[in-house]
Amino acid sequence: MKAVITSEEFYTEGGCNACQPFTMATYDLTFEDGTTTSLEELDVSSLIMALAQKNQWRQSYEEDGFDDILIYQKEATKITVKETLRQITFEKAGTTQTFVKKDCDLTALFSRVNEIAKDFFALSNTDFEVRPLEK
């Protein structure tokens, strides 16, 4: 499967006189069939969520003491996801793996996402391409 990521950066203000303007980025992921989804961030959890939703994995949330746990489920397969600021942990049928959520090297990020998609969701590799937004 192929997927194209486009992004747009813009300046915004925090909403008060004391807040300094800052740059924000938005990301869109367009699949080869033309469907597009917005990404919250350009990180492991956002890309995995987009791939899972594209492949009809249902999502739900559970609480575990202080943590929210994201649950992906398709038929009898259940995957739990726990996130911290810097790490994301996937668990499926007793197998647990923890990954760094963000990577400055996009090639490494996309490789990690494909590894998780294959090992946990049984999805084939996605060929990610990053393109500048056409104006």
Explain what the structure shows.
This protein is an alpha+beta fold and 135 residues long. It has two helices and nine strands, in the order E-E-E-H-E-E-E-E-E-H-E. The strands form two sheets. Strands 4-5-6-7-8 form a five-stranded antiparallel β-sheet, with helices on one face. Strands 3-2-1-9 form a four-stranded mixed β-sheet. The radius of gyration is 16 Å and the shape is globular. The mean pLDDT is 91. InterPro entries: DUF4809 (IPR032080). This is DUF4809 domain-containing protein.
Strand content: over 45%
User: Order of strands side by side in the largest beta sheet?
Assistant: 4-5-6-7-8
**How far is the N terminus from the C terminus?**
26 Å
The number of strands is: 9
Low-confidence parts, pLDDT < 50 over ≥5 residues? none
Tags for this entry?
5-stranded antiparallel β-sheet, 135 residues, globular, single chain, alpha+beta, 9 strands, 4-stranded mixed β-sheet
What is this structure, in a nutshell?
The chain is built from two helices and nine strands, in the order E-E-E-H-E-E-E-E-E-H-E. The protein is of the alpha+beta class and 135 residues long.
